[in-house]
Amino acid sequence: MAMPANFGFGEEEQMLRDAARKFFADNLPSDRLHRLVAAPGVAGAERWDPGLWEQMAALGWTGIAVPERCGGVGMPVVAAVALAEEAGRAGLPAPLVGTLQASRLLVGCASAAADAALGDIVAGQAVALAITDARGAWRGDACELVWQDGTVTGTAPWVQDATKCAAFVVKARGPAGAGLYLVRAGAPGVTIVPDAIVDLTRDQGSLVLAGAAAIELVASGGAAAVVAEAEAALFIFVAADLCGAAEWLLQTTAEYARVRQQFDRPIGFFQAVKHPLVDVMMSIDLARSHLYNAACAIDHEPERALRAAHMAKAAAADAARFGASRAVQLHGGIGFTWECYVQLYFKRQLHNEALFGDGDWHRARLGAMLIDTAAA
């Protein structure tokens, strides 16, 4: 199938992006975000507004990546990416990216149980992925959990927004290999052990299961193929969040450079400030081009989606690191202070950069793919 113009980003996708941007501007301006996540004494599990999540669900956003057969909106991946990018731009402290990732994985399960879970997501249920092992690997049969007789036992680390989610898609070893299962939060045998992470806009934890009841999504031996098929989407939703947050850092720093005076001139007058800002803008534009190219590939050319997703996540991670460091530097003496909103996005970028592989990891994987292709 040929790639459409503008990566398939049409009028409906633009309307969704505009609506999301206005919604976050009205309901989550930077000062409210700072009060919500950086107030003294606020714990990680409390750093969000469940009412805001309910409004997003009422707007249909949790069902953006869910097929119509399950009650979802059924929009293309480029639309879901645009929504994730706006969430990153707002520094959204809610499990949207993880739920979008889980939706894509559940679609690939192609089972009645998975379709029921997708229906719950449309209704506003947040779902997190618990598919990595202690080393952060998620490919093949890598997992820390064991399934037996309808229950799962073990510990799944690195679960994003663990305390905010109502259910978890877990990968567990069965008699024939790894399968995928759904575990409900709050069920007997389910415990969440929070991690201490740098990102104030999210929480992370380990999912500890002691014989917890599990709904089978994909039988033992089938998880690896489903995860591999969804892998490109897992990468680009994080890349979208990275691009959105990078854009906020760029625009905020550019505005500061216009109003901050030094030597009787705005600091943006000086080349030592304006040139780094242009470099940041170029790195974000490059990353965003890779991002929507990868999203469009998932929609129209799935055979090349993974390669494009590796490129997107690598470019977004690089742009995030560069842009965040320049934002702190160009804000001068206030750039690293708790009161400056830049710190929230700086920390979010650090977390996202490592999530599902940093730039170096993705370039290494991309190199291996290209070499294998050339050898064939």
SSE layout:
Blueprint: H1 11-27, H2 30-38, H3 50-58, H4 77-90, H5 96-109, H6 112-122, E1 127-130, E2 145-148, E3 151-160, E4 167-174, E5 177-184, E6 190-194, E7 204-213, E8 215-218, H7 223-259, E9 261-262, E10 265-266, H8 271-300, H9 305-330, H10 342-354, H11 359-375
Parallel strand pairs: 1-4, 2-4
Antiparallel strand pairs: 2-3, 3-7, 4-5, 5-8, 6-7, 9-10
Helix pairs in contact: 1-4, 4-7, 5-6, 5-7, 7-8, 7-9, 7-10, 8-9, 9-10, 9-11
What features would you describe in this structure?
- The structure is a single chain.
- Helix content is 52%, strand content 15%.
- The chain folds into three domains: 5-122, Acyl-CoA dehydrogenase/oxidase, N-terminal domain (Butyryl-Coa Dehydrogenase, subunit A, domain 1); 127-222, Butyryl-CoA Dehydrogenase, subunit A, domain 2, CATH 2.40.110; 224-375, Butyryl-CoA Dehydrogenase, subunit A, domain 3 (Up-down Bundle).
- The longest helix has 37 residues, at 223-259.
- The chain has helices at 11-27, 30-38, 50-58, 77-90, 96-109, 112-122, 223-259, 271-300, 305-330, 342-354, 359-375, and strands at residues 127-130, 145-148, 151-160, 167-174, 177-184, 190-194, 204-213, 215-218, 261-262, 265-266.
- The relative contact order is 0.12.
- The protein has 376 residues and is of the alpha+beta class.
- Strand 9 and strand 10 form a beta hairpin.
- The mean pLDDT is 94.
